[in-house]
Design a protein that fits this description.
33% of the residues lie in helices and 24% in strands. With 292 residues, the chain is of the alpha/beta class. It folds into 3 domains: 58 residues, Nucleic acid-binding proteins (OB fold (Dihydrolipoamide Acetyltransferase, E2P)); 150 residues, Rossmann fold, CATH 3.40.50; 67 residues, Probable gtpase engc, domain 3 (Ribonucleotide Reductase Protein R1, domain 1, Orthogonal Bundle). Strands 10-9-8-11-13-12 form a 6-stranded mixed beta sheet, sandwiched between helices. The radius of gyration is 21 Å and the shape is globular. Bound molecules: guanosine-5'-triphosphate and zinc ion (ZN). Keywords: Cytoplasm, GTP-binding, Hydrolase, Metal-binding, Nucleotide-binding, Ribosome biogenesis, RNA-binding, rRNA-binding, Zinc.
Amino acid sequence: MTGRIVKAISGFYYVRLEDGRVLQCKARGVFKKRDINPLVGDLVDIDAQGTQEGTITEVHPRHSALVRPPVANVDQALLVVSLVQPPLSLYQLDKMLAMLALSNIEVGIGFTKVDLPFAQQVLDEVKPVYTQLNYEVLELNVRSGVGLQSLERFLKGKITVLTGQSGVGKSTMLKTLVPESGALTGHVGHRSKRGRQTTTHVELYPYTDGYVADTPGFSQYDFDKLEPTHLGSLFREIAQYSADCEYRGCLHITDSGCAVLAAVESNQIVKSRYHSYVQLVKELQEAKARRY
Ligand SMILES: Nc1nc2c(ncn2[C@@H]2O[C@H](COP(=O)(O)OP(=O)(O)OP(=O)(O)O)[C@@H](O)[C@H]2O)c(=O)[nH]1
Ligand SMILES: [Zn+2]
């Protein structure tokens, strides 16, 4: 039988079969020897023992694997961002887009709380910036169900991780999409704020022949080790214009004659995006300095 690992806790893997049953499984001992570590998201073969338990006998090849959070075969992320309450931080948004680009995950942006005062104004300002960069942008009011059809289309048949800052509406969204989700685990990663950074608990919830993953968030660990000169490749428009930048190893911040700077001055690159980029270059330089 073949199934998908939807949860892993203390050496047990919870494998969901095509008929919807979930079996509690152990991994075969030989995996350790072969250095195979089954991950949530893996497609696996199992031998069932009775109706509740089984043994994982084979792990199918993965098309991707994230380390922090540990989850395999993720197709895309939905970056959940609230327009107001908490207020939109373009810097945080651009930083998370860059982090997801580093992990090589496709990403859509879900703006939430469109129903609240001033949200529409904020949306009108920022939406064109990101659609112009070819990000899929969803407008959502998770409480009342506005935008749920576009969300359903976005999630269909894919394994999607929900990510975003605290308070933006991820749990509300998950509860709306998968009403049982709250009852099952109580969102280990989300509820205990103090334990949040240390827990690596990931759970996949079946949704319209795909899965939605509830994760404690993406780690900054690998991002902080990034060379500042590589950051430009994670900003779509900066990557595009830096092809015309003649300086090797250019940070596109000070050199006159830099093609990226020229594009910023002529408004072909949006100023807020460039500000986020410059701020992040500084942070990476500081992180690098701390390492030596
Ligand atoms: N008005 C409005 N409120 C929303 C919407 N989505 C979520 N909320 C509210 O925003 C608050 C935070 O939502 P959560 O779903 O807990 O946010 P979260 O992203 O899971 O936050 P953490 O658990 O801290 O990671 C709750 O009071 C929700 O009811 C929305 O679209 N519109
Ligand atoms: Zn340059």
